[in-house]
């Protein structure tokens, strides 16, 4: 993890320098609280690496990196309400620690603060283009979240629909992070487009892996209970594929369980047995690998540099992650 | 109301031309639903009038006007959840018609769409300045909303604190609307500043009036139940002033009632009697008039034009409103 320390050091320092006013506490304390919980800072790191990859100065890109991290945290604040998630990174979620109203408002405030960060970039940066790419990315995240909600009551979600959902919900902000890095470094449009494709593949791989880890990870390392997604009846890649290929009887049984959430421990284990019976974890693994490969291949087209090697290492690190 | 028809016609047409995608329905249907409910469109009208006042072309300012209306509706979506308001403009609130998660997400989507609208303005407009003023306005709205929430459990809110709360919650977006109109018309900084002061005074007057109408309006015209704010224990100007000047015994009685919301009909009437006893509605009226005067005086400094006369009429119309 040494290779990312230089990036995270810069990012943490920049986040600490965000001088949120002390009052109103109801608005700013929850923003400080969620920013201080130990996120992996993957997205701002990607902004800095993409900027470096395009010959930009890493420090110059910092406001954009922080903007992306603020947007990520804004989505977490609101998602945790929508998903009724009681904890996040080992701490109580904001809507639990405070209340739903405070979490909604703090999220709105973070969205605003994120967009304001972009004002701090140099005049030479194409501010309008940067805003467009960022906002379209955020809207794509909203679309993905909406699809995820719609899938909740459906048993016939296809693998393609699933992929289009995570392309928004998870991958759109990772895609935007890389594009934004390119735009800040004033890279040509074609290069920014390639960065976007790299980011999209990386984000899709990352989400399929998340779905997988829910079942195969060591709960202690992953920080979440095994089968949490199953318990909540989430339409993960594993669930979607299983519903598609299991017998009518199994499908009926699954439908019954999914309509009566949360699933109990015995049922979760039975679902995992179904995954094993149909080789679903292997097919998830294989799809995940395809997307990681695609990301690596996109990166291979860039000129050699320290940033390129760092991004290669980051992709390898993410691919091997067990949490 | 003839004098505003030319503005609202343009605005309604522009809103109808917003081509929200048909899918995901969960994201876009609630956005369409709230935009189609009959809002007064005061804020976008102000954008157009301010632009005209500064010599700008009204049609050119339309994307900015729609952006402000989208932000206003975004705040309504989220505020209705926070305030547990079940209806809005005679229709079920989005979080009631759908659910809380959908209303949060639709609000986030509208925020994003609002910011994207600004991309459609001509290249000559100072896009960066426009974004800054807009975003700072939105953040000020969030601060006001946070203060309002903090006031809920306090009995010692001062009139100054109340004014600073509504300067954010209600007036900040009205202020931003006028500033934005000026910026789109490429008005000098000094003029935009004057427009901001005009808007801030107008917004504060508007909110004090809203507080007043809760008590004095004909419920049929106002569209809300008489004493709704009292029932919810809101720290309106009237309540804040009364808590400040009533006897210790009355204060204790009020404190008891406010800690046990919603207040019942008999208690609401008793609170209104307190307002009458201490001449609170008169002092609210007088403060409201001061702010309306201040707005009119700011406007008087502008060169004569049709837009100026329209804005004068709008201020008069708002001042006389009974709903």
Task: Note down, in words, how this protein is organized.
Two copies of one chain form a homodimer. Chain A has 323 residues and is mainly alpha-helical. Chain A has a single domain (2-320), classed as Farnesyl Diphosphate Synthase. Chain A is built from 17 helices and two strands. Chain A has helices at residues 2-16, 25-36, 42-53, 62-82, 94-97, 100-117, 127-151, 159-169, 171-184, 189-216, 219-222, 228-231, 237-245, 248-258, 265-277, 280-300, 306-320; strands at residues 87-88, 91-92. In chain A, strands 1-2 form a two-stranded antiparallel ribbon. In chain A, a hairpin with a 2-residue loop joins strand 1 (87-88) and strand 2. Chain A is globular. The A-B interface holds A 24-27, 78, 81-82, 100-102, 104-105, 107-109, 111-113, 115-116, 118-119, 127-128, 131-132, 135-136, 138-139, 142-143, 145-147, 149-150 and B 24-27, 78, 81-82, 100-102, 104-105, 107-109, 111-113, 115-116, 118-119, 127-128, 131-132, 135-136, 138-139, 142-143, 145-147, 149-150.
Features:
2 strands, 323 residues, homodimer, globular, mainly alpha, Farnesyl Diphosphate Synthase, two-stranded antiparallel ribbon
